[in-house]
Amino acid sequence: MVATIRYEDIVKVPKALLHDHLDGGLRPATIVELAAEVGHELPATDPEELGRWFVAAADSGSLERYLETFAHTVAVMQTASALRRVARECALDLAADGVVYAEVRFAPEQHLERDLSLDEVVEAVLAGFAEGSAEAAATGHPIRVGTLLTAMRHAARSQEIAELAVRHRDSGVVGFDIAGAEAGFPPTRHLDAFEYLQRENFHFTIHAGEAFGLPSIWQAIQWCGADRLGHGVRIVDDITPGAEPVLGRLAAYVRDKRIPLELCPSSNVQTGAVGSIAEHPIGLLRDLRFRVTVNTDNRLMSGTSMSREMALLVDAFGYGWSELRWFTINAMKSAFIPFDQRLRIIDEVIKPAYAELVD
Ligand SMILES: O=c1[nH]cnc2c1ncn2[C@H]1C[C@H](O)[C@@H](CO)O1
Ligand SMILES: [Zn+2]
User: Fold this and answer.
1) What's the whole-number mean pLDDT along residues 260-265?
2) Which residues bind substrate (predicted)?
């Protein structure tokens, strides 16, 4: 059965992606061109070589070193035209890979090095997504892109970014997130922002349980009220393995409440959160029926795509179309757009496409 799943067929089926960073998904050729325009020095100027450099440099086994590579992408995303271009290309690249729904995140506070305001940064990115989505639809690859605004957890601008997200909620910003180095920067540092967002009936996810374990996940959910967990892979630390795995109280809570896990297999291997794709807890978490979703995190740093992440899981775990459909519907159910709109994509786009493949 597994042998019948071909990569090109995975590309063709509709996929939903909840965890993808705008500044982690640039085309290498675009980085080279934008860097030349602003005089930013890169580790390589041949696009293919630069692409390889990113993957190798991010392959460090440490989240902190992985994050250092973003200096080169953030440096070339400091003008409205660069942001708009990168967002347009992101929508086009995801659509060409068969992604029909994507939530793409970035941290506006990292794009203020020239003369843009926070609102101008967001407007440029939203314009790029709209442009790319319209072009993709015109070529037969419709995609809906929702934007998540991220605040950097080591910084102190989360309240401001949360307010920015709410200000743009009717023009494409569908959620909020915190990201950056996890150890030493617990989610509760940003409690004011999360409490504000709850009062605004807004949605948010929190990067937690990636480089740091259960306390981070516990805070994200029980103190901050996160709707979803960015990664959350370390929830396995609260599961005693065996013929009948035993869930601790936090793992049981996450599963009982159907809290979505935004798992990012390749990224986790690169940052050392897990040893290999085959050892990735996604196998166990799926067997235990957690609300598992599959994500890219940073397509540039991992040299990956949504189809490739799924293909890696097919190879490692022998998954077939029914598992790929399950991941896709899980993601779509967990999206931050309104319920009726999620349902429409599930019923009109995802289910009909997989119906032909799943027996
Ligand atoms: O996997 C990640 N964990 C924590 N932070 C991350 C990850 N991937 C990207 N980031 C950071 C670096 C980016 O500059 C920032 C906003 O997208 O988010
Ligand atoms: Zn991430």
Assistant:
1) 98
2) 21, 23, 180
